[in-house]
């Protein structure tokens, strides 16, 4: 996996059935094996939709740093 030359945020809810956590873990491992260092946050007990809101305390500062 190459081509990621910008900061990457990945938020994963542990109860996500749309994108199961093992798939995200594999993606992160593949990215890291290719020198990509995503910022990864895991949100216990959250499903796919709830993870969007649950990630805001982490994702908003991430985006703010990009424009700061």
Describe the secondary structure blueprint for this structure.
Elements: E1 9-13, H1 21-33, E2 39-43, H2 48-54, H3 56-67
Residue runs with pLDDT of under 50 for 5 or more positions: none
Number of helices: 3
Mean pLDDT: 95
Instruction: Compute the number of strand runs.
Output: 2
Q: Spatial order of the strands in the main sheet?
A: 1-2
The helix-strand sequence is EHEHH
Overall shape: it is flat
Distance between the termini: 28 Å
Helix/strand/pairing class, anyone? alpha+beta
Main beta sheet strand tally, sense and closure: 2 strands, parallel
Proportion of strand residues: 5-15%
Helix content: 40-55%
Q: Rounded to an integer, what's the Rg over CA atoms?
A: 12 Å
Q: What labels describe this entry?
A:
2 strands, 68 residues, alpha+beta, two-stranded parallel ribbon
Commentary on this structure:
The chain is α+β, with helices and mostly antiparallel strands and about 70 residues long. The protein has 3 helices and 2 strands; from the N terminus they run βαβαα. About 45% of the residues lie in helices and about 15% in strands. Strands 1-2 form a two-stranded parallel sheet.
Brief digest:
By secondary structure, the protein is of the alpha+beta class.
């Amino acid at each position: 996996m190459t081509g990621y030359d910008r900061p990457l945020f990945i938020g994963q809810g542990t109860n996500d059935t749309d994108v199961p956590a093992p798939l995200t873990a594999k993606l992160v491992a593949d990215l890291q094996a290719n020198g990509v260092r995503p910022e990864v946050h895991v949100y216990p007990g959250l499903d796919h939709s709830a993870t969007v809101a649950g990630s805001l305390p982490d994702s908003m500062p991430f985006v703010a740093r990009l424009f700061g």
